[in-house]
Amino acid sequence: MERLRRITSKYVLANRARIVAAAAATRSRVPSSAVAEQPFVLRLLWQAPKVLPVTVLCVVTVTGFLVSPEIHLASLLVAVPAMTAGLVGPGVTGVITAFACVAAVGLDIRDGLLNSAILPIHVIDLLVVCGLVLLFWFLRGLDTKAFDQVRSVSDTVQRAVLRPLPRRIGRLRIASVYRSAAAQAQIGGDLYAVAQIPGAVRLIIGDVRGHGLPAVDDATAVLGAFREAAHQTATLPELVASLEGSVRRHITEAGVADRDSGERFITVLVVEVPDDAHVVRMISCGHPPPLRSQGGTAEVLRSTRPAPPLGLAGSAEEYHLDIFRLAPGDVMLLHTDGLLEARDSTGTFYPASDRLAGLRWCDPDQLLELLMKDLLKHVDGQLQDDVALVAMERLRELTAQAKNLWRARNVPSVWNVPSAWTRRRPLAP
What we know:
The protein has 429 residues and is an alpha+beta fold. The strands form two sheets. It has a six-stranded antiparallel beta sheet with strand order 1-2-11-10-7-8. The chain is 49% helix and 16% strand. It is elongated, with a radius of gyration of 33 Å. It has helices spanning 2-36, 40-66, 79-83, 90-110, 118-161, 213-229, 236-254, 337-340, 352-358, 364-378, 400-410, 419-422, and strands spanning 168-169, 172-179, 190-197, 200-208, 266-274, 279-285, 291-294, 297-300, 322-325, 331-335, 387-394. A hairpin with a 2-residue loop joins strand 3 and strand 4. It contains twelve helices and eleven strands.
């Protein structure tokens, strides 16, 4: 029996390797097929800027040999290397400039300008323009390298501060997205984190006042305090009170170098989802209320007595605990004020609740993808504030019959193993 178990495991692993290899091959073929399926007109327009310098070179050269010798068109070739700036690489620029010089010399000789000063002037003009274009490429390369370094640092900070949330934790399936309003930044004052404790899952989402390094500093302090206190406090009010104490100490220490530290505060929403009850416990500290999607409808879960933001509140007795139902299949959407304050060109705010009710999705990842696309369409792609979204779905519990069926489908059967592997071999003498 032990030998049969080893053979079965080997067979399952071999099939899994073949499936993974086939999936990888399929993914590698997708980009090429997608490109090949593009319409011919779109492919032609995509390649048009790259062939434009060569087209101008050919048109000017052919026209110059066809018109009268009194019409000198060689001076127009100076536009050829200028057109390569930002379109093709420096190597192609040099090659095109060389052909342009040959064409200019040929046109000047045909026009009878071999012994005049115009011929070398045309060649010098082409070389000067080529040199300026190459200088442009060099400076652009320096800017691109500096930008890549800044983006790399930003990505590192984002991964360190906003750690990716697990896709499944406890009885929840979670998805998250963060979109910064700054063109060159990927992290600002919005924050979120999750922690699993015995019997429950705790999650925080917040928004720090302001932007820049002070906002990142405050967000880091809140996230660090939450990740530590979530495992050391028994109740949600005690957890929020611990966060308040940590934020106040952080603001006091920051006041040594920042005179405006007294104006700092952080709005947060802390929730707790127990494993054995279909409810969600919530404490709001000045944060926008979450949304609950249930059976094709969306509802705003407003706190009956919200507390002040962190940095302005008090003890654990001041935090009111709200309890809402979160049945299996329900989705709770946590968000920052950037979602509700997004406006279109007419100044209309984004109707998050109505849009959420109208979306059709199959998992939290697809929900956030559709919601973010709809939000960007509402604001014409220009966000005015950072947006952080966290969607968590309460998983449905499997019945006893479904559990037995799942086990039967995932345990390999002996009859599926090739007979050559299970054939009994003769014992050694």
